[in-house]
Design goal:
178 residues; mainly alpha; Rossmann fold; 2 strands
Length: 178
């Protein structure tokens, strides 16, 4: 299944410079390559060996297949050609799934409504975040201003003690290296 998801780009790139392709018979290559004319498809190890051997040993075959592949790619993949195919595909999609476009005023109203809703949601989220930050600041200030009943230090004192302890450990480690 993974190989089926690949495109024929390797064939196209090689063909653009006249190099023949031997490829696995995945959907993309089956669609792009005319076996024996613009490249080769191989399903077994024997087919790979046979096609590669023929191309290596027969320079005329290599040149003929490479030139035919190049002509085929130019005929099918140039932007001028692909644009027509893309336009037809998009037209088919619109015909099957599309609907009439909304009038300009209706589009503007819909967009404005979405923008207002998005702004209101963002404003509500910002207000909630500000309330939470205020509550955290109040709780921290209260913790800093009060020591517990058992005389436990506040956050700032605890942090300072931890930093001092780490400094002492670093100094001891540096001293033990000397």
């Amino acid at each position: 299944a993974f190989c089926q998801a690949k495109s024929e780009i390797k064939y196209v790139e090689a063909a653009l410079v006249g190099v023949p392709t031997v490829a696995s018979a995945t959907d993309a290559f089956v669609h792009a390559i005319r076996p024996g004319e613009t490249g080769f498809l191989a399903a077994t190890a024997d087919e790979w060996r046979d096609h590669l051997t023929a191309l290596v040993e027969d320079g005329a075959l290599r040149a003929r297949i490479g030139a035919a592949a190049r002509r085929a790619v130019y005929a099918a993949y140039l932007p001028e050609v692909a644009a027509g195919s893309l336009a037809a595909t998009l037209g088919a999609i619109v015909a099957r799934f599309g609907h009439a476009p909304a009038p300009g005023d209706e589009v503007a109203t819909l967009v404005a409504g979405q923008l207002v809703r998005r702004w209101q949601e963002q404003a509500a989220a910002t207000a909630q975040a500000e309330r939470q930050a205020d509550e955290l600041r109040r709780a921290l200030a209260q913790r800093e201003s009060q020591r517990g009943a058992n005389g436990a230090p506040g956050v700032a004192e605890t942090r300072a003690a931890q930093v001092e302890l780490l400094r002492e450990i670093v100094e001891r480690l540096q001293g033990s290296r000397s």
